[in-house]
Batch of 4 targets.
Target 1
Amino acid sequence: QHNQLLNMIDPMANLTSQPGGPQPGGAPAQPGQEETMEVFDFHAQQNNMQKMESIRSFMGIITGCCAGILGLTDWQGLIFFVAMYLLVSVCLLGKIGGMGKLEEYRKGVSASGFVLEALQNCFMSYMLFWTLFYGLVYLF
């Protein structure tokens, strides 16, 4: 049995693999050839996803309350939700550092996926609080 060692390099530490050291696949390294691998922290990505989900859920609740209190109905309420959802998504992208940093912050997510990933959950929260506050203010 031949044990294979996988040399994982942290790109933030400015380290490189040693020439002649173990390489993926068990092949010895050629002199002058360096092999690096990206270190991925799954727990950090899950934490990022939870924080963004919390921000978007909170946005749905707050904007639903505002739409109900303002008395928005029909298309006005829907347009208000879409505008606020896009505003929050743009603010999140700005906080991340723009489109270039999105891949570092959320592995494997495109820009459209980032914008649309929590749309349904956020809209459900929005609808609940929109109808609740509209009923409390204008019907009772």
Target 2
Amino acid sequence: MAASTGDDVLPDTGRLQVGISGAGPAGLLLAIGLAQHGHSVTVLETLASPADRGTVNRDRSYPVDITARGMAALARFGVTADGSPLRRRTLPFYGHMTPWGPEALASAGLIGTRDDVVLGLLEFVGEHRAAWPGRVDVRHQVPVTGVDLAHKVILLEFVGE
């Protein structure tokens, strides 16, 4: 993940132009937070959107349970509100079963696949971006090969004839 710094600050507003490599849960939550604070964010993702390829993908669709600290972090950005896309895409999670019996959580978390979480965050961006002072632009199927921090650029794989 790479963020612009220094002379990339927009002169009149003090706002950043930020590039994020990877539209997974962390990249999307970072983009949401930056846009909510007025920054302009472009997220580049190599894979197709889970909305296009489905949320069951062997390489990307492992189970995720979000509890305590994760829920608190997500709540700071408003993504866990009742009826939110993340809540619609995941299920409530109340604890684990251990050999010694159930281990309940102090407060309910969320459980779903990684792609369900990603899709919930993408839908959250779509539903709320107009209300934010900054912007988020997520681009799928952009093959990122690296980040050159010295030149402040994201390196892309050339796909052509």
Target 3
Amino acid sequence: MASAAEHVDGGDDRREQAQQLMLSYKDNFPGIEYIGGAEVQRRRAAGERVVLVDVRTEEEQRVSMLPGAVTQEAFERELERDPAGFGGAMLVPYCTISFRSGIYAEKLQARVQELFPAPGAAPAVRNGEGVSP
């Protein structure tokens, strides 16, 4: 699992630009914690349930998706069908540079609070920090 900056062609300057752009978006989502690819891998290896939700376009998804990730549409259908199935999970929307996923993470965080009203019952929501295929 790589960061967005590692997937930008064109050398160090473009990687740095992508990294700076990604970091600049963090201020737009102050209520959402971030998680990077290495931490996702560590948690999965430790047996934690981390659900990667790909919020990119279908065209982008046809190029590549992270192993085990689900599309936003498939995730939403399953969340509506069986919200309890996500209890105890960490939900991690991702895109390329964390902007679209940040927008979705905010909406998702509000939604899981509605679905899991008991204190501490809602799944954790994190924005994938440039987590990309």
Target 4
Amino acid sequence: AIPESLVIGFIVTEGSRNPLVFVVGVFLSNFPEAMASGATMKTVGLATWKIMALWSTTCILTGIGAMIGSAIIPDSGLTGDFEVFVKGMEGLAAGAMLTMIAQTMLPEACEKGGGLTGIGCLLGFLSALLVSL
């Protein structure tokens, strides 16, 4: 959540891109992960209020991360070394999302969903690509 939240702050302050596209993309990638992990936590006996407190805290920390990302952009904008830092954080955020999906979501989805899971994943990726264009 940290790289993603910083990137949200960068995009909002930079103003050259629509932050809504990135925020929707992050939401669409994080929501199934949260649902799956929340269900697992419930299955192992964690109280509902603890699960809600965990995810509420994560949302608050994401907002704080976006605020920090917005605050650390220099007045001169994205130039030089800072631009490299921002691009690195964007790459880290994208890699973190892909890693989380590939490691936790896809194996379970393939096990329960069968062969159509790959097609669904491809369609989801193409949808995200079209939204970004």
